[in-house]
Structure formats: structure tokens, C-alpha cells
Write a structure and sequence with these properties.
The protein is built from 6 helices and 22 strands. The protein is mainly β and 372 residues long. It folds into 2 domains: 230 residues, Sulfite Oxidase, Chain A, domain 2 (Alpha-Beta Complex), CATH 3.90.420.10; 118 residues, Immunoglobulin-like. The longest helix has 7 residues. The structure holds ligand MTE and molybdenum atom.
């Protein structure tokens, strides 16, 4: 059993698949803290978790022609300036279960918890690439990452990001070795993972083994044959993965974490809580909440850390305390967020349904009963 050596996990996690391990925190725990505690940070593994020895761990950075390839130990990585940022990581499949209700999709049944926030520390990728002699070139190029996790044929997890993002100090792409002040937990990439602020989780390669700069995107299955969006009209018989760009920056997202769908709330006043986030460093500027399915709206209070313009890498938590309209037996609670480009979420999921169930960011809805 290649999974026999996987780490022990927190019992509160809701497991979507045991081997490989995929699990999300329950919604009410997810927004209990602005920074998600490591043991309940959502986990998305495609393969068994490698057990790496920090003493013998090496990161291979392929240099350009005429440059210098690097073979870095953990101590070598610690020599680069230590950079720290709070970043929200979201899987492209977050909220996929809502797409499944429209029509079957291929993928794990994530609810609203395939998203979490941590304070990461590590070396900046641009510093490491510069040390190897890489520069921004005029032509298109991509930084390809390879994990040290692999399938029975020896194929490793891989992904890539454009070189321009990797080389931009303002994009703050990290080779992270700390998560919330601790060495990375094994499930989250020990000893080193990539953190690409504002970009889909799939590019944050864990158990990082190799970095290279290539003229083309990574040839990995997860770069080329997965993590792409399509029209609702496209099915598995006609899908052409080469026709769509790989997902990088994610669209604006929000969800209600309290109360839960189907719950019974007290009459009088109701407290509604949730999260909101957008990709590409776009800040959430507003969250609107409705108690009547979207007929009327109230503006929620944004909590959590104020985000920098163009570098809003982390989510905002939000809440609204609202009187329950007298005589109501049930509430259809809805939330939607707006980012600083005035991007909004689509109101329903059917028009954004896609065969892989990615990019599910329609208005989030929960239906609750009110005690008389
Ligand atoms: N890196 C490796 N090496 N192997 C993986 O399976 N999964 C990716 C990414 N990096 C993955 C990986 C996906 S799809 C996501 S959403 C994030 O890791 C999840 O990171 P987390 O498990 O720390 O939450
Ligand atoms: Mo993912």
C-alpha cells in the first residue's frame, strides 16, 4: 500500500477521499479563525505523501544556458532573504458539489471548504531564479515545478506558471518552508512547496524537487489535461483540452459558513458568517447578503486583515447580524462578493457548469428554517 506511510490527520476534517487523501474543514471551523490552523487546513493530494528527510533534501534549479544550475539544501534556502506573506489557497474544485447537483461532473465532491489561509515564509522564487542566472526574456516562458510525489509509473506531480509572474518581486511567489510559524506539515509539502499568491491551488506544487524554465507550459497532466474551464455544452466526447488556457488567477468567490444549509435558526436575529476572496491580488470590496433569495440585499461587515491594493492575497471574513423578518418560517440566505475590478459572481451555477466541475463561484445559497 503506497499510502501506508501517509501522516495521521485531524478527526474534524471531512474526508472526500482517503487514498489519495483529500479533506476539508467543516464550514463553521473554517471561519472560526482568520488564519486556518495547520491541522484543519484543507488537503488536496493526487498521490501518496512522500516521506522526505530534511537532511538529504535537495531542490534542483536548472540554470539557463551559460547560467548555473543549483542544487539547494534546506540550509542553502535559508540563506536567501526570508519573505513572509499571508495567502489564501483555493482549489479549482472548491464548491464542485453544487455543480454536481446540476449534472454529473468528474471530480471530488468538495463543498465550501477547499479553501484555507496561512501565513507562509520562505525564499522568494525570483531571488532563487536570479541566483541561477535567469532573467526575464522578451519571449514567452514558463517556470515548471516538479513534486517529489509520484504515481506507480514514476510520474511526478507537476505544474507551471508564467516566467513573468515568477520573476516579478511584487507577485511574491515563494518557495515556502514555513506555514504559520512551523515547518510545513507533511500533507502541505514538507519540506518545501511553491506558494503563488492569487493563483489556483494546483500551481502551488508541494514536496518541490525541481524548478526549470521552459519555452512551453509544463507537460504535466495537471497543467494540460485538467484544471481548465469549458462551456456547459462541452462533454467528454468532444472536449479539446488544448483549446482552453490553464487556470491561473481565480475569479471572485464567497460562501456562507454559518448558518448551515437545512439548519434551524431562532426568530428575532440571525448572524450570518462567511468568507470572500478573489484571485490575482484583487481585493474584496463588498459582500452583499440577502435573506429572501436575492430580492433585497444588505451589506455585510468585512472582518480580518485589510488587504493591500493589487496584492490582496488573503481572504476577508465577513458577517451580518440581521433581524429575521416577522412571521418568516424559512429564509433563503444568499451571499455574493465584489472585487476591486468590480467583478461579481454569477447568480446561478447552471450557466457556468463544466465537465470537470471547476471555477464554481455562483452566489452561495443556504436554506434555513426559523423556530416560531
Ligand atoms: N503538489 C504536489 N506535489 N502534489 C499534489 O497532489 N496538489 C495541488 C497543489 N500542489 C498537489 C500539489 C492542488 S490541486 C492543490 S488545490 C493544492 O496543492 C492543495 O494544497 P494543500 O493540500 O496544502 O491544501
Ligand atoms: Mo486543486
Amino acid at each position: 500500500d503506497p499510502y501506508a506511510d501517509d501522516p495521521v490527520r485531524h478527526p474534524a476534517l471531512k474526508v472526500n477521499s482517503q487514498r489519495p487523501f483529500n479533506a476539508e474543514p467543516p464550514p463553521e471551523l473554517l471561519t472560526e479563525n482568520y488564519i486556518t490552523p495547520n491541522p484543519i487546513f484543507f488537503t488536496r493530494n493526487h498521490l501518496p505523501v512522500p516521506n522526505l528527510d530534511p537532511e538529504t533534501y535537495r531542490l534542483h534549479v536548472v540554470g539557463p544556458p551559460g547560467g548555473q544550475s543549483l542544487c539547494l539544501s534546506l540550509d542553502d534556502l535559508y540563506q536567501f532573504p526570508k519573505h513572509e506573506i499571508t495567502v489564501t489557497l483555493q482549489c479549482a474544485g472548491n464548491r464542485r458539489s453544487e455543480m454536481t447537483r446540476i449534472k454529473e461532473v468528474k471530480g471530488l465532491e468538495w463543498n465550501t471548504g477547499a479553501i484555507s489561509t496561512a501565513h507562509w515564509a520562505g525564499a522568494r522564487l525570483c531571488d532563487v531564479l536570479a541566483k541561477a542566472g535567469h532573467q526575464l526574456c522578451g519571449t514567452e516562458a514558463h517556470v515548471c515545478f516538479e513534486g517529489l510525489d509520484s504515481d506507480p509509473t514514476g510520474t511526478a506531480y507537476g505544474a507551471s506558471i508564467p516566467l513573468a509572474r515568477a520573476m516579478d518581486p511584487e507577485a511574491e511567489v515563494l518557495l515556502a518552508y514555513e506555514m504559520n510559524g512551523q515547518p510545513l506539515p507533511r500533507d502541505h509539502g514538507f519540506p518545501v512547496r511553491v506558494v503563488v499568491p492569487g493563483v489556483v491551488g494546483a500551481r502551488h506544487v508541494k514536496w518541490l524537487g525541481k524548478v526549470s524554465v521552459e519555452p512551453e507550459e509544463s507537460y504535466s497532466h495537471w497543467q494540460r489535461r485538467d484544471y481548465k474551464g469549458f462551456s456547459p455544452s462541452v462533454d467528454w466526447d468532444i472536449v479539446d483540452f488544448d483549446s482552453a488556457p490553464s487556470i491561473q488567477e481565480l475569479p471572485v468567490q464567497s460562501a456562507i459558513t454559518e448558518p448551515k444549509d437545512g439548519e434551524t435558526v431562532q426568530s428575532g436575529e440571525v448572524t450570518i458568517k462567511g468568507y470572500a476572496w478573489s484571485g490575482g491580488g484583487r481585493a474584496v470590496v463588498r459582500v452583499d447578503v440577502s435573506l429572501d433569495g436575492g430580492l433585497t440585499w444588505q451589506v455585510a461587515e468585512l472582518d480580518g486583515e485589510e488587504q493591500r491594493p493589487r496584492k490582496a492575497w488573503a481572504w476577508r471574513l465577513w458577517q451580518l447580524q440581521a433581524p429575521v423578518p416577522a412571521g418568516k418560517k424559512e429564509l433563503n440566505i444568499v451571499c455574493k462578493a465584489v472585487d476591486d475590478s468590480y467583478n461579481v459572481q454569477p447568480d446561478t451555477v447552471a450557466p457556468i457548469w463544466n465537465l470537470r466541475g471547476v471555477l464554481s463561484n455562483a452566489w452561495h445559497r443556504v436554506h434555513v428554517h426559523v423556530t416560531p
